[in-house]
Amino acid sequence: MFLLFVAVIAGTILLGIEREKSARERCRRFAAAITVEDRVLKLPGETKLGRGRFVLRGEWRGTRKRHYAIERTFTATDEIISDGIELAPERFSVEVKENDDALVELPAYLIEDGKFRGTVVVPIIPSYSVEVERGPLEASRDMEFAHLRLDTLENGFYGKLYVNVNRCRGARVELEKSGLRTKEKLAELKGSGEAELRREFWIEPIILIMDRKYSDPRKLRDVFGRRLILEGHGDYVLRLILDVPFSKDVHDAAMVTVRPGEDVPKEREEPEVRVVV
Questions:
Q1: What does the pLDDT read at residue 5?
Q2: CA distance 198 to 94
Q3: N or C: which end of the chain has fewer CB within 10 A?
């Protein structure tokens, strides 16, 4: 019985590997069959599509036998039959932590019939409207302080950090997103001094070709070129932290709201197509 159990487990693993390989090859064939013309993604013929949102959640589970669990959910808002997809800015969000925890929310089109059935087309056409709730930020204790001046940019924000301390260790600035509460350190000073920070969100248009059952959010690291990914629209918290030894740190924070913008600069019209399976 034990050998039979082992054989069943091994067979299930091998079957999963083969199915993932088949899905990857299908997505690659689809990527080779599409073109982009005048902000329209041309499909290989009339295609039945579900239009909606594709959400992926990933995390390591278990103690002795750890495995990476991925939940994939496609929620359709409507169905269309078309030979093209108009490329326009839509809301997207990508969070992948260094420990592989992931929460990804994407605009998507699911192919519902034909030889490419199960393929998910994700157009990411970045455009932003950035608002900082308030500024400047300041954290102080016993005549020692950290001060952060802020200005918004077309695709993000700019800041200048001033720190004047004696007993305190220094200060740092962090960006955190609601959702997984993924954090990114933007600037840090040890002791007194000045520092500049500039945080711009992802600006390169891309078309992700994914699979409804087999896409892995960790593979988005190859697309964005970073192990920790914190990109897209949504609500962020920008936090200034004064590092106080042997006591609680002093914080000041502001909400940063990032919404889709209306226009995409002409020099960024041509998207790159990437397969993520």
A1: 44
A2: 19
A3: N
CA distances from 145 to 171, 239, 245, 250 (A): 9, 14, 14, 9
- 227: tokens are 């192990």
Residue 210 lies in a domain: no
Do 155 and 58 fall into the same domain?
no
* Residue 44 maps to a domain: yes
The pLDDT tens digits for 68-122 are: 999 999 999 999 999 999 999 999 999 999 999 999 999 999 999 999 999 999 9
| Global pTM value | 0.89
Kind of pairing between the strands at 156-164 and 193-200: antiparallel
Residues 41 and 90 in one domain: yes
Residues 62 and 172 in one domain: no
24 with 136, same domain: the answer is no
Do 85 and 9 share a structural domain?
yes
Closest by Cα among 275, 259, 276 to 32: 275
Average pLDDT of the segment spanning 32-38: 94
Structure tokens that stand for 155 in this block: 């695709």
Using DSSP's 3-state secondary structure scheme, residue 150 falls into strand
Percentage of the chain beyond pLDDT 70 is 92
Range(s) of the domain holding residue 181: 129-202+228-260
DSSP H helix total and E strand total for the chain: 2, 18
In angstroms and rounded to an integer, the radius of gyration of the C-alpha atoms of the chain is 23
Q: How many domains does the chain contain in total?
A: 2
- Please check whether residue 123 lies inside any domain of the structure: yes
Pinpoint the alpha helices (H) of the chain: 2-33, 220-224
Closest CA to 235 of 261, 260, 259: 259
